[in-house]
Amino acid sequence: MRRRAVRTGAAVIAGLLLVTAGGCADEGARPQELPVAADVPVVVSGEASAEPAELAAPSVPAEEGMGTAPTRSPSASPKPKPKPKRTAGPRPTPKPPTETQVPPPPPRPAPTGCKPTYQGDEASRSQVKAALSDAAARQYWPVSAPEIKIPLNLLKATAWQESGWQSHIVACDGGVGLMQVMPATAEWMNQRFEQSYDIDDYRDNAYLGGTYLAWLTKYIGDMYFDANENPYDLSADLCTSELNSCLLNAVIAAYNYGHGAVAREGEPLTIPNPQYVRNVRALMTECVCLDY
Fold first, then answer.
1. Residue 13: what pLDDT?
2. Residue at 145 is within a domain
3. Residue 143 located in a structural domain
4. How, if at all, do strands 17-18 and 11-12 pair?
5. Which first-to-last residue range defines the signal peptide (predicted)?
6. Mapping DSSP to helix (H, G, I), strand (E, B) and coil, where does residue 42 land?
7. Does some domain include residue 51?
8. Can you tell me the distance from the alpha carbon of 200 to that of 177, in angstroms, rounded to the nearest whole number?
9. Which residue has the higher pLDDT, 8 or 166?
10. How would you label 89-126 residue by residue, b for 16+ Cβ within 10 Å and e otherwise?
11. How many Å apart are CA 121 and CA 166, to the nearest integer?
12. Does residue 199 lie within any of the structural domains?
């Protein structure tokens, strides 16, 4: 929710990555689309995908000739091939944004040497895990963009990078709680989606962070990735070695630096904070928090 390249905080990834507890947060809130009554966030249950049945092998008539017909070896049953995903990199020139209401810009970086403060009671790891799991299970844009889903490992990794899962921390630049949501961004998100989330409550803080990630997914996806079968796909396997190649990296960057530094009208997709993006991407697979 605010601009900053690296934060000081909990140590992660087998002692190699440092998590900064206060400075890194995005402008953040959670994207639950709601001005329409039907567009209320809902919990999504997993659906089991049925495995396609194999096609039956065609029968082959026996060859006629002198004596008995030769023995036929059984034919292999053809298996349906998975339908490839239609994916593309970001547009070099984006479409105009569909979201005309945007969050406030991030604050200036905190003074060097400033230490975060703490307020209220700290939620336990099990409580934080439950809050993040609930936020990941929500469908944020059920009417206009039901494809948007925020992966649980992205929420866990972002919260670890932002606060070290400390629900009662307040950073020097104003970021609050688990997802380091900026107060001005929380206020904007509540107005935009007609909600009343409390930034100081760790559960609402998780929802605000999830909402902001979802809003960024729609905003950037509509501008740069509309050619994809799913323009809101946050899969890591769509990313190449180029950081600006996929929506996931762009959303992570914008959570920390603000949407305006990543997605600008008429300009290519930009990653202004590569180290932050690499940290969160690594945490998505290696964070100790994934086992909590």
1. 39
2. yes
3. yes
4. antiparallel
5. 1-25
6. strand
7. no
8. 7
9. 166
10. bbeeebeebebeeebebbbeebeeeeebeeeeeebeee
11. 10
12. yes
Whole-prediction pTM: 0.73
CATH number (domain holding residue 261): 1.10.530.10
- How remote is the C-alpha of 130 from its chain's centroid? 17
- The residue type of 107 is P
Q: Which two tokens stand for residue 279?
A: 């940290």
Q: Which of 35, 224, 214 is nearest to 139 (CA)?
A: 214
> What does the alpha-carbon distance between residue 42 and residue 209 come to, in Å, rounded to a whole number?
16
Residue 180 · residue 160 · CB < 8 Å: no
* pLDDT: which is higher, 221 or 2: 221
The whole domain housing 252 covers 11-38+87-104+114-291
pLDDT classification of 41: cutoffs 50, 70, 90? low
* CA geometry: angle 78, 80, 84, nearest 5 deg: 145
Provide CB contacts within 8 A for 132, sequence distance 6+. 152, 155, 156, 159, 178, 206
CA–CA separation, 252 vs 129, rounded Å? 20
Higher pLDDT, 32 or 95: 95
Whether residue 57 has pLDDT greater than 80: no
Q: What is the mean pLDDT of residues 116-144?
A: 97
How many residues in total does the chain contain?
292
Phi, psi (rounded to 5 degrees) for 117: -115, 170
* Phi-psi category of residue 74: left, alpha or beta, with phi > 0 → left and psi -120 to 50 → alpha: beta
Quote the number of domains for the chain.
1
Q: How far is CA 246 from CA 166, 253, 278, in A?
A: 29, 11, 13
